[in-house]
Amino acid sequence: MQTPRKAQWDVPASWRPALDAAAEGSVMLLVGETDSGKSTLAAVLANAALASGRRVAVVDADVGQSSIGPPACVGMAMPTAQFDSWDALAPGRIDFVGACSPAGHLLQAATSTAALVGAAREASCETIIVDTTGMVSGGLARALKVAKIRLTDPDVIVALQAEDEVEHLVAPYRTRRRPRLLRVRPSRAARLRSRDERAANRQRKFASYFAQGVLAEVSWKDAPAENSPWTHGERLPGHLCAYAEERLACEVVYAERRADGAVLVVRGNPEPEGLRALRESFGGTPHVIEAGSLENLAVGLLGERGETLAIGIMERVDFREQRLAVYTPLKDPCLVRGLRLGSVRIGRDGSQLGASE
Question: Strand 180-184 vs strand 156-160: parallel, antiparallel, or unpaired?
Fold first, then answer.
């Protein structure tokens, strides 16, 4: 096997079996702690596969410290030549997860990863490298890794660990023929980054993504949200909104009725007794959304097949006209057929303003 030409990367001897697997053509899923060097390992494996003439895809499922595409997304690149830096690669596809941590978004994180691995297979990629998040401790980490392994069906799991820190995640695969388990040591070049460094990197990535953004209008009647009860129901008339306001003792800026109850967008804290009264009036449990949580909310803009066309910042909501003002690099908002609401709020400069409620 030809060694990748990027000499500036430290390549431990323990990586050799993984390099051979990449050169032979495999779906490879990487597991390791935060700052263990998974992104470097992914780049070295991709270059090894390219050096052997393989068609390569890298799926970056690290939503907090993304190398491909903006944070809060799974990204995919299909490099055609060896590369020195992730910044040299443009994302071929992204899939919006909606948060910079998979906690609370396990299902979307796993399905987004599987969707892009599926896209890489459809593109006839022979070596597919899946870089996962650094969340490796606790039951959530175990559930996420098991789901990703089941959904992506890798040939090889590469466990990157200094001692045995991810052994509890990969132990179930020790006695199986497939996926094959390879254990490798971190590179000497791997270094820990502070919380502030990771936050600054996310801001830089978001800012770069939105640098060419424009303010676009999107009608939520033409592009309903796929992961929220809002935008799907029949708008409540004014007198029923006034009734809801009286019961809740807070402003109701918009309301819908669905078969399973009302959806209320409010400003303020609704009275619990009022919510119980509305349950009797409208049927089902009322779903309450704080209007402020929608401001500067990151959203995925979806195409006609549910693919992520781009992400945007929902800066204003016109409840009367049922339209959204979204800041996005997407050039043609007429292509948008759906929304996926995130849980992170950001500014145009990439700064995180907090999580939605």
Answer: parallel
Inter-residue contact 32 to 186 (CB < 8 Å): yes
Structural domains in the chain, sorted by start: 13-192 (3.40.50.300), 208-357 (no CATH)
- Return phi, psi of residue 302, to 5°: -105, 145
Residue 321 CA to its chain's centroid (Å): 30
DSSP single-letter state for residue 126:
S
Digitized pLDDT (tens) for each residue of the chain, 357 residues in all = 444 444 467 788 999 999 999 999 999 999 999 888 899 999 999 999 999 999 999 999 999 999 999 999 999 999 999 998 888 888 899 999 999 999 889 999 999 999 999 999 999 999 999 999 999 999 999 999 999 999 999 999 999 999 999 999 999 999 999 999 999 998 877 777 888 999 999 999 999 999 999 999 999 999 999 999 899 888 999 999 999 999 999 999 999 988 888 899 999 999 999 988 888 888 888 899 999 999 999 999 999 999 999 999 999 999 999 999 999 999 999 999 999 999 999 999 999 987 654
pTM value is 0.91
